[in-house]
Every structure is written in structure tokens, then in C-alpha cells.
Amino acid sequence: MLCLGCRVGEVKALHWSDIDFKKKTIYIHREVVNCGINAQTEKDHTKSGMTEGNRELPLVDEAHAILCRVRAMGIDDDHVFLGKAGQYLTTGSINAHLMAACEHVGVKYSSSHKIRVWAATASVQHGADEVTAMYAFVWKDRETMQKYIRAGRTEIAKQAVFMATFDSSTNGGSPKTDDPQKSEIQEPT
Q1: pTM: predicted TM-score of the whole model, two decimal places
Q2: Predicted local confidence at residue 56, as pLDDT
């Protein structure tokens, strides 16, 4: 979510077949939604309910590394993220994990939705044009995009601290390397 700006339901619905490790892309085209008390189901569309929400996104190095680590765990399921009993994660459990991670690294907690706002703001600040941002985050209009960006600007200092802390905690505190021969993360075969 942090690296891609995906909605939490889109993350819950990720399948390994949606990820191309060689091309470093991820195809977002489904979501997990609530369908009653303690019940969730997977839909073959994203929040918009239309195919315009389907998108192929580049995997930034951080997201690629995290997914390689998860894949290396050898979980025998096509879903990327599942709960201990093999069921879909709940939004509450994801946010509880985020809260624990924030506490662990000493930063203020932010929900999965707030992280999406940060990712949107960061993408625009790092040069994404409006058309690209609207495609990546599936916004129907410029007004919606600007609402997210305005909200995100008030969080920039938090984002910088979180990103730096997240990077060092997921990278084992070791310095980054651009040399794939020196990377501890092996691409899945």
C-alpha cells in the first residue's frame, strides 16, 4: 500500500499471478469487499466496479523487495496475503499490523487509507503528471485528485519520517544497494 497506493481491498485480493517479477509490474484488477458480518468476498473488479479501475503499475524497488520476501516464505496459495487460517485479512487486522509497526519504529500510527493519501501526494511531488496520477490511483476527476493531494500535503513530514524508518526496518538496517549481485533478496523462480 505504501509503495503503490493501492486500496486495502485491492491488496487483500492480490494473487501471485498478478505480479510479473521480471518486468517489475503488478496488475490490479480485483478487490476483497465485506459482504456481511465477518464475511468477505473477492470481486473481479476494483472499487469503481468497472474495468477502468484495472491498471498495471510499475513495482518500485521497495515493493519488489517486499514481495520477493513474502514469496520466499513459500506460502502454498495463489493469494499474496492471507490470515493464519488461510482466510482474507480484515482491514482491521491490517490496520492493527500497521499500528504495531508504527509503534515499533516510533512513529505516529496512520491507517491504510492515510497511507494511500501519502502515496498519492508523494507521486505528484516526485513528478507524476495528473493523467498518470489519476490512472494509478483511479480517480475519476481532477477535483478528487486535488482533494487527496491537499490532504497529503499536511502529512509530508510524517511521510518522510515513516518512509525512512520503513526502509531501514524492512531492509534490516543495511544500506541499499543497486547491485543485484549484492542484494540479499533473490527473485523467485
Answers
A1: 0.73
A2: 92
